[in-house]
Structure formats: structure tokens, C-alpha cells
TrEMBL record:
This is YolD-like protein. It comes from Terribacillus saccharophilus. InterPro entries: YolD. The lineage of its organism: Bacteria, Bacillati, Bacillota, Bacilli, Bacillales.
């Protein structure tokens, strides 16, 4: 006999529609639609990207990753204007994060 008093007890009492609705809600938690940025905000981001000095600039970034919004802090170790991305080296990851320019939502320079 299983002593689980959580999902196992209540799943048999739920209608299939309710189970499906709860699963859908679980998939949507944590997903956020990225904000729509106007020209002025895009210009400010572009100026911040131009100000970045590779290997010296510490930055905190908010960026889109799929449908989610991620936050990362670290040192910008690479900036590829031709391919439109930058590399952010964080302390908690082995490799730098490759962030495309069009996925960046906000940059805070330190």
C-alpha cells in the first residue's frame, strides 16, 4: 500500500477535463510573453551594446530564451556585430551564454 496522500488519492476523483486543464496550467506557468519595445528603448539597448568593452564590462541581462524570460549576470567576453550576438560568461556555467541581440530585453552595466 502506498502512503502517498497527494495526487494519487485525488486523480481518480477528477474529471478528465479537470486533469487536462491542470496540465495546461502547469505548462503555462513560467512562460512569459516578451514585452513589445518601442524605438527609444531599442535605441537605448543599442547604445549600451556599443558601450560594452569585451572582457572588461560586467553586465546583468534580461533576455528571451524560447518563450521564457531569463536573467544572467557576468562579464561580456565576446561581441560579434556581424552575427548579431554577444557572449556572457557567468560564474555558474561552464561555457559562456550566447545571446542574440534581438533576444535582449534589458541590459544593466556595472
Amino acid at each position: 500500500m502506498v502512503n502517498d496522500r497527494g495526487k494519487i488519492k485525488w486523480t481518480s476523483l477528477m474529471l478528465p477535463e479537470h486533469v487536462e486543464m491542470l496540465q495546461q496550467m502547469g505548462r503555462e506557468i513560467g512562460k512569459a510573453t516578451p514585452p513589445i519595445m518601442d524605438e527609444q528603448q531599442l535605441e537605448e539597448l543599442e547604445q549600451k551594446v556599443r558601450y560594452i568593452q569585451v572582457g572588461k564590462t560586467k553586465a546583468s541581462m534580461m533576455y528571451r530564451k524560447g518563450r521564457n524570460v531569463e536573467n544572467a549576470s557576468g562579464i561580456v567576453t565576446g561581441l560579434k556585430q556581424s552575427e548579431q550576438y554577444l557572449l556572457l560568461d557567468t560564474m555558474d556555467r561552464l561555457y559562456p551564454i550566447r545571446i542574440p541581440f534581438d533576444h535582449i530585453i534589458d541590459i544593466t552595466l556595472h
